[in-house]
Amino acid sequence: MSGFDDNPFGNPGDVNPFQDPSVTEVTQSGVGGFEHYSPFPASDTGPSTGSTIPASTTPSQPAVLQPSVEPSPQATAAAAQVNLLRQQEELERKAAELDRREQELQNRQGPTDKENNWPPLPKCFPIKPCFYQDFSEEIPQEHLRICKMMYYMWMLYCVTLFLNVLACLAYFTAAADYGMDFGFSILWFILFTPCSFLCWYRPVYKAFKTDSSFSFFLFFFIFFAQVVVTVIQSVGIPKWGNSGWITAISVSRSHLAVSVVMMVVAVFFTVCAAMSIILLKMVHSHYRRTGASFQKAQQEFSQGVLTNRTFQSAAASAATSAAQSSIQRN
């Protein structure tokens, strides 16, 4: 009980817990043993050398999340201004291209002092050329090929009509009862040769030259009728003046040589019909790329009629006569 009477707040040196004999013995005898102790056993190949791997001397940096940088209002305004400048340059380029094409169209439509060169007649001939035609000068490059093909198509059709006259002449020589076919063949040659040039070739030439919507529509209307006529001529209905397939086959039993000649002409008519259909589709595809429309055709027709001097003079005379008649009545 004497321990309880001691002062707990007294000098701690008076009570030393390490003075216990068992603790003192362990501390004095185990210090050296811990200095040579290695927790890693020696390898099978030899004793451990005790070498250690040095740690990296580079200080590790903590991962830092970069904050998202939003563009400033100045940068946004500068980008918008650059975009507007680019769009303005594009619009100016398109406007310059449209002005150039309009100037070219005006130059083509304007009066020229060039002499007519078609048909190519000798100078001593009493009839002078009626038209001026120059593909490389008047037709744009994108329409040049199809326009020349239409011209060659017209020439092929004229040659076919001339061969039809010869075939019908041979038919009339072999059988005198078929003089009507020979007469009609001459009529078709005289009628269709100039009419095909004026009614569908010149309109398509003018359409490619000036991008005229009215000329395109006029060509489509007349050339479709031309295709129908060529198909009928290739069929060769008897007594119609055409050396088609029906007429050529019907003559083969009695006059084989005449039948062969008429079959050759029938082949020409068939080629003309097929080429006409193909060219009609090609011209239509070019027409759609030019931006022509029925509304533009109406505007061109109305402007052409109103600016025509003949129409103006006729309208003025009609108005004058109407005014005079109304004055006389009053």
Structure report:
The chain is an all-alpha fold and 330 residues long. Helix content is 66%, strand content 0%. Helix 7 (213-235) crosses helix 10. The protein is elongated.
Q: If you compute it from the alpha carbons, what radius of gyration comes out, rounded to the nearest whole angstrom?
A: 53 Å
Counted beta strands: 0
Amount of beta strand: under 5%
Q: Compute the number of helices.
A: 11
The helix/strand order is HHHHHHHHHHH
Low-confidence stretches: 30-34, 43-48
Secondary structural class: mainly alpha
What's the average pLDDT?
77
For the largest beta-sheet, the strand count, sense and barrel status come to: none
Shape: elongated
Chart the SSEs and their pairings.
Layout: H1 21-29, H2 31-35, H3 73-109, H4 135-138, H5 141-174, H6 179-210, H7 213-235, H8 245-251, H9 256-289, H10 294-306, H11 309-329
Helix pairs in contact: 5-6, 5-9, 6-7, 7-9, 7-10, 8-9
Quick take:
This protein is mainly α. It is 66% helix and 0% strand.
Keywords:
0% strand, elongated, single chain, mainly alpha, 330 residues
